[in-house]
Design a protein that fits this description.
Elements lengths: L1 H29 L2 H22 L2 H11 L4 H32 L7 H15 L3 H6 L3 H21 L7 H27 L6 H10 L1 H10 L1 H13 L2 H35 L4 H28 L1 H9 L6 H8 L2 H16 L5 H22 L6 H28 L3 H6 L1
Helix pairs in contact: 1-7, 1-12, 2-4, 2-5, 2-8, 2-11, 2-12, 3-4, 3-12, 4-5, 4-8, 4-9, 5-8, 7-8, 10-17, 11-12, 11-17, 11-18, 12-13, 12-15, 12-16, 13-15, 13-16, 14-15, 15-18, 16-18, 17-18
């Protein structure tokens, strides 16, 4: 079952990596530098807007649904309540996203860019992949995601747009994604039905997912937060340089996260009745994840110059230095993901995850304020690398404490 689920989900995650990378050479050459910087800033902000309706439910929702497998009534109630909670969060997300977009210098107050940034963020946040992952049918929504990304790539090739049309490119991304999300919710409704859940139950899920929401929001600071902050600290040309390298690293990190995300529900469901089996699943997933992180980081470090030249052109040469620094982040992201999803989430240590991620976010923004900005985008990469070192070390320490405190069979085998 794990292999059957893993292959399409990993394929969707690879599509998230490959397709945006294939899009970058096209838009980087067809858009002017300041328009490309606006597009990168808008996409980063859209992913920040996503955090409110997503609310950590990618993990909390998948875990809740996985624990209700085999009890259709309980599963249906939980799914409807979580969807309602996500819809409640859309209004504050839209308001905060609109204000943040209007303030961002690289967007210049463009109404179309502002509206599309918020729309893309809401569509990303409402994605129902958590439900399909929890019921063991993650491949169903994975194929929808792959289709939306493929449509984005095709539209970027076929639709004509000028050197200032950053908003049109953003619309080409948001449209197929919104359609995939709508279809995913229709499929979910067919399984669980449609009914208005009691507010008390919705509020309970909001409380239950609060720690993971704060952790998820804080975890965005090293990547997306710095791209957004760069719009205030540097000129558009330098924002484009930093964002170009960051996009390659973030795309590579997308290859890493699904390894433990896919196996986490299996570890959680086996932990009580088959602790040795849960330990085996963890060891294999974590080993594969760390090996992949080291391999990807090494590749980006060695091939930074040709990657930047091929993807972005000669005008983005400074991004190679940023990319070489950021390449060291990938092994750290792998360790972070293994501990986060493979141990701490399974053991219900949501508050510890939140604490570590918040501390990391504080380090990032404090470091950016003290050391970054000016004419050197590489400083932002050093700030992020330092924060990821702290996060990985803290996750390892918290995970060791969690497995020692749990029942003897699983933690000894897992550690």
């Amino acid at each position: 079952m794990i292999v059957r689920t893993f292959i399409p989900v990993y394929g969707a995650q690879l599509a998230r990596l490959v397709i945006p990378v294939l899009v970058l050479p096209i838009v980087a050459r067809r858009l002017e530098v300041d328009a490309f910087a606006a597009l990168m800033s808008a996409q980063a902000l859209a992913y920040l807007v996503m955090l409110a309706p997503e609310y950590g439910f990618a993990t909390y929702g998948a875990r809740t649904v996985a624990q209700a497998r085999g009890e259709e009534g309980r599963l249906a109630r939980a799914a409807r309540e979580i969807v309602a909670a996500k819809l409640v969060l859309c209004l504050p997300a839209a308001a905060a996203g609109t204000l943040a977009a209007l303030l961002l210098p690289t967007l210049g107050g463009d109404p179309a860019l502002v509206a599309l940034t918020v729309a893309l963020g809401l569509a990303l946040g409402l994605a129902p992949g958590w439900f399909f992952q929890g019921v063991g049918r993650a491949q169903a929504y994975a194929f929808l995601e792959i289709g939306a990304l493929a449509a984005f790539l095709l539209l970027v090739f076929l639709v004509p747009y000028g050197p200032r049309d950053a908003a049109l490119v953003l619309a080409l991304q948001a449209g197929p994604l919104a359609l995939a999300v709508a279809i995913g919710h229709w499929m979910t409704a067919r399984r669980v039905g449609v009914a208005r859940p009691p507010w008390s139950a919705v509020a309970a899920h909001l409380r239950g997912g609060a720690s993971l929401f704060v952790a998820k929001a804080a975890s965005a600071a090293p990547g997306l937060g710095l791209v957004y902050l760069a719009g205030f600290l540097m000129a558009p040309q330098l924002v484009a340089v930093y964002a170009a390298a960051e996009r390659v690293v973030m795309g590579s990190a997308n290859v890493l996260w699904p390894v433990m995300q896919v196996v986490m529900p299996e570890i959680a469901s086996r932990r009580v009745h088959d602790p040795e089996g849960a330990a085996r699943v963890f060891r294999r997933g974590a080993g594969a994840l760390v090996a992949l992180g080291v391999a990807l980081g090494g590749f980006l470090f060695v091939a930074a110059d040709p990657i930047v030249r091929i993807l972005f052109g000669a005008g983005y040469g400074e991004a190679a230095e940023v990319l070489r620094i950021a390449a060291f982040i990938l092994p750290l992201v792998a360790v972070n993901a293994a501990c986060n999803n493979g141990v701490l989430v399974v053991h219900g240590r949501d508050r510890q995850i939140m604490t570590i991620q918040v501390a990391t976010a504080i380090l990032v923004f404090a470091g950016a304020a003290l050391f970054a900005g000016g004419e050197d985008p590489a400083r932002l990469a050093w700030v992020r690398l330092g924060a990821e070192v702290f996060a990985a070390a803290a996750m390892v320490a918290a995970s060791l404490a969690a497995v020692r405190a749990a029942s003897p069979a699983y933690p000894r085998s897992a550690s």
